Amino acid sequence: MLKLGQPAGWATAALAVTAAVALAVPSAMAQRDPAYEAARSAGQIGEQPDGYLGFVTSPTPAVRDMVNDINIKRKAAYTSGAPAGSTVEQFAFVTGCNLIAKTRPGEKYKAPDGRWLTRDSGAPVRDSRCP
Amino acid sequence: MIGRRFVAMLMGAAALGGCVQIETPDKPIEINLNINIKQEIVYKLDGDAKKLIEQNSGIF
């Protein structure tokens, strides 16, 4: 019994170590680009309920290119990260719920009715299905 | 003179009687995103979503 249990124990420990290392290694995209951060805090761009960034005001070519690039990367992340049994859109939607919840006061987000709202100190207006 | 007063009274009555109160909704009308998602899937995906944001903070 004990001999049989040991390899499983080792495997579990090895898995745990691998997971810990994977979490500890900083991602190549660990920090927001200063231009991205600036456009967010200036309210030029905001978080949408679908999990993507949107333009609050007519963007400069630089801001437009940057947001399109981020949205392509987000789509790739949703596509590779969507767990079995869920669609890319569903995973993007739940991530969007979290991203709107994480907006800082002064930043923009899109309410379920399509209005761009400015996050204040209170809770944001989110889709009723958000967790 | 009497006619004018009568008209004024009528207008006053009409103004009072015709007072329509419109209640503004305190919540905005919600137009749901065209996405089909069950609550159990929302809760199942919530942890993965949080992890995704943490591990790709540059694009979120």
TrEMBL record, chain A:
InterPro entries: YdbL. Residues 108-118 have a biased composition (Basic and acidic residues). Keywords: Signal. Residues 108-131 are annotated as: Disordered. Residues 1-30 form the signal peptide. The keyword Ubl conjugation does not apply. This is DUF1318 domain-containing protein. The lineage of its organism: Bacteria, Pseudomonadati, Pseudomonadota, Alphaproteobacteria, Sphingomonadales.
Automatic annotation (TrEMBL), chain B:
It comes from the Bacteria. InterPro entries: YnbE (IPR025985). This is YnbE-like lipoprotein. It comes from Sphingopyxis soli.
